[in-house]
Amino acid sequence: xxxxxxxxxxxxxxxxxxxxxxxxxxxxxxxxxxxxxxxxxxxxxxxxxxxxxxxxxxxxxxxxxxxxxxxxxxxxxxxxxxxxxxxxxxxxxxxxxxxxxxxxxxxxxxxxxxxxxxxxxxxxxxxxxxxxxxxxxxxxxxxxxxxxxxxxxxxxxxxxxxxxxxxxxxxxxxxxxxxxxxxxxxxxxxxxxxxxxxxxxxxxxxxxxxxxxxxxxxxxxxxxxxxxxxxxxxxxxxxxxxxxxxxxxxxxxxxxxxxxxxxxxxxxxxxxxxxxxxxxxxxxxxxxxxxxxxxxxxxxxxxxxxxxxxxxxxxxxxxxxxxxxxxxxxxxxxxxxxxxxxxxxxxxxxxxxxxxxxxxxxxxxxxxxxxxxxxxxxxxxxxxxxxxxxxxxxxxxxxxxxxxxxxxxxxxxxxxxxxxxxxxxxxxxxxxxxxxxxxxxxxxxxxxxxxxxxxxxxxxxxxxxxxxxxxxxxxxxxxxxxxxxxxxxxxxxxxxxxxxxxxxxxxxxxxxxxxxxxxxxxxxxxxxxxxxxxxxxxxxxxxxxxxxxxxxxxxxxxxxxxxxxxxxxxxxxxxxxxxxxxxxxxxxxxxxxxxxxxxxxxxxxxxxxxxxxxxxxxxxxxxxxxxxxxxxxxxxxxxxxxxxxxxxxxxxxxxxxxxxxxxxxxxxxxxxxxxxxxxxxxxxxxxxxxxxxxxxxxxxxxxxxxxxxxxxxxxxxxxxxxxxxxxxxxxxxxxxxxxxxxxxxxxxxxxxxxxxxxxxxxxxxxxxxxxxxxxxxxxxxxxxxxxxxxxxxxxxxxxxxxxxxxxxxxxxxxxxxxxxxxxxxxxxxxxxxxxxxxxxxxxxxxxxxxxxxxxxxxxxxxxxxxxxxxxxxxxxxxxxxxxxxxxxxxxxxxxxxxxxxxxxxxxxxxxxxxxxxxxxxxxxxxxxxxxxxxxxxxxxxxxxxxxxxxxxxxxxxxxxxxxxxxxxxxxxxxxxxxxxx
Length: 981
What we know:
Blueprint: H1 2-26, H2 31-42, H3 46-59, H4 64-76, H5 80-93, H6 98-110, H7 114-126, H8 132-144, H9 148-161, H10 166-176, E1 202-205, E2 208-213, E3 216-220, E4 222-226, H11 243-256, E5 260-263, H12 269-281, E6 287-292, H13 305-322, E7 326-328, E8 337-339, E9 347-352, H14 358-367, E10 374-375, E11 379-381, H15 386-406, E12 412-416, H16 431-440, E13 466-467, E14 477-480, H17 488-491, H18 493-496, E15 499-500, E16 503-504, H19 506-517, E17 523-528, E18 536-538, E19 546-547, H20 551-567, E20 572-575, E21 615-619, E22 641-642, H21 657-660, E23 662-669, E24 673-680, E25 697-703, E26 710-711, E27 728-732, E28 738-743, E29 749-754, E30 757-765, E31 773-774, E32 779-780, E33 783-787, E34 790-791, E35 797-798, E36 801-804, E37 809-810, E38 824-829, E39 834-840, E40 846-848, E41 853-858, E42 864-868, E43 872-879, E44 897-901, E45 904-906, E46 909-910, E47 917-918, E48 928-932, H22 934-944, H23 951-954, H24 965-973
Parallel strand pairs: 4-5, 4-20, 5-6, 6-9, 9-12, 12-14, 14-17, 17-20, 26-31, 37-38
Antiparallel strand pairs: 1-2, 2-3, 7-8, 10-11, 11-13, 15-16, 18-19, 21-48, 22-23, 23-24, 24-39, 25-27, 25-43, 27-28, 28-32, 29-30, 33-36, 34-35, 38-39, 40-41, 41-42, 43-44, 43-47, 45-46
Helix pairs in contact: 2-3, 2-4, 3-4, 4-5, 4-6, 5-6, 6-7, 6-8, 7-8, 8-9, 9-10, 11-12, 13-15, 20-22
């Protein structure tokens, strides 16, 4: 027994000794690993910190410090689910640790578990935590909940505890929409005093709007512009936040002669602050047409309960905002913030809804066939469509909410457009009607799957909504009208035969019909515009094309349409739009702008919707490259090629050799264009003041995807091999013969006969196409088909309208130059012996210049396949045009080469060792500048000539021309000089 006791004692001593050695000499220690992980976390090396923490966790999986820091790392990396796993485990062991509980709360916020986040923050508050971190956490919760005012108070408390806290400053700037100094955001909301009697500053009276002031009401004509403040590199939800920029725009809009600004949806708080301050001191205030955009309903059902609630919330937000009581939650795709300025007295109307595609209206009507009437407090529908009932309910809700909360009313309308107008247009067959006609004449037409968006298949009739006596501010109708679409404006004889003093004007005919139908109700025309793009989206026989118009032409057409709208008896009109928008897309270019999310980073000169603005948002190169031939524009650029020795490859031996002597080729690029400058010995050798086009032509070859696509030869010139492939040929042959040609093997379009009707053809996509370098093929014009073939309901055929989009116009980009042309693509200067060009990226199949993406094929479903270009291979040639060969195919003309850049090793071999490529510098943030277009001053004269009184109110049959005595008197009444400035 004694021996057993001794053994037990010895064993205990051994165990204690072994434990001591393990704990202090052998066992792995997590402390140094954790310390190193903290250091990496502070350096923002979160992945490295996690690697160290996992090693520490393997040593001690219950170390709450390790678990907590792992949670913070995952939270910083955006993996809230992984963060939650570690915070939950640590919290169970040590719920009293502040840093742990705070991280857990932030994680629940990211996961949308707001109740749990609130519980955790309350726990910390009850424990006495009051520092800047606590205020920031509470503020973050309030922002997530859309309670911006409570969030702002907490951010201010955080600044009181930590005056330089960048997170608090950033959030306050976002919520109040200010930049720089945040002193302005100390403003407190003025308490709203509800008027004792119903108040309204504008009213829809009969066919026009009337403004109430000092107890009197007088008719007013609304002339305005649409404003969507999305700058380059931004989507609309990331709008301008600088009040100073808004203030500058408002000065220019007022100087234009406009009295109204139309917005589609809520803008940032900075806009309403700027409008309040502008109007507070302006002799002529700017009025606001506030839109409330609903977006598309789920499953195309406007009566979806969640959709109805969302629309009502947007209405409440808009009403609260114009009364200076807005507290709007920021959401993806939606501006939010704190709105402290009441501009209700300057709001001349509310417009709810959207320009829905016809299938949305059709489907809503099909799903809800029993909904045919509505009896509201302010508006009723005795017999209408379900979609019209929905809009009546939204209007009734908007008026009721504003009156109940603020005892105010504003004139109200729902948004409409010609596609859904209540008129019948015989030339607008539906797709199914058209397919039936096409089959009847022999076409093997396949019926595509729906839904179908036809332009005259379903309607939204404003006359089906009847305003009731309690709608004191009145009801009006608002139509978004483009002068070239739908096609009934182009094809309907009833409208084609209408003329004004300048010629055919189908818009005037349509507006007269529209006004006659809506008699007794103000008709507001919105979104009438003309883009100043090179590309054309739709043709109009009257010349109101969507694109292909210079800025001067844009101004003239806008001025004409302004007079048209007035003469038709409308109550007003707003121009599309104030600012060029880089984010806008069109059907004609959309598939070729890839990746789609990067389209905001570059401006596509071939895409009309980007160029509707009166204010241009120019890429950085616009101010540098004016196509003037000024060497200073290229002073900081080294030439891609310079003349080699001997000076010329094959001189002709006549007086025009200096024109064929190539000296240098320069290349540059920006967010819209590839720029080229070709310098020659002497452009004008017969002293007639012009380049010697009859004796000297030029050809620039471009291989946009070397070794992946293109032909191994170029057009016009004697055969020269390019093993890497040339995809484009730029022909410089004079004012009417300068164009960008594309190789047939790289062109995504082809003309093909209509199946069953060989006499008809269409321009279609080459589906399933892949780029390749080939020895056979040709160079051809780049064609576009803005107007597809159509059939009217009576079977009349309207052939397609096409144009060669690769033609480059001559001119200077300087407004002071005698040959100024805002669409100019090239210019020759005989003083500096240079030819400057700018080529839109889209004419080179570049789908995103910011990331070097170019087209290399197309899937069977029409999806564009892209690849990164390693750079553009470039060559330049001069040649003497041979007589008698111009009628031959361009690949067989074989004009003799006079000179080349780089030089040539023989008559058919370019100096391959000297061949260079050009790769520009990509970007993730575009550079741009803003300027008023030439169209501004032209429209200004038209706006300032508008009488303040509508034609329907004053009995005026036709608007006076700007230069007439009556026109000058009208301009003076509007506070403008008679010269129109």
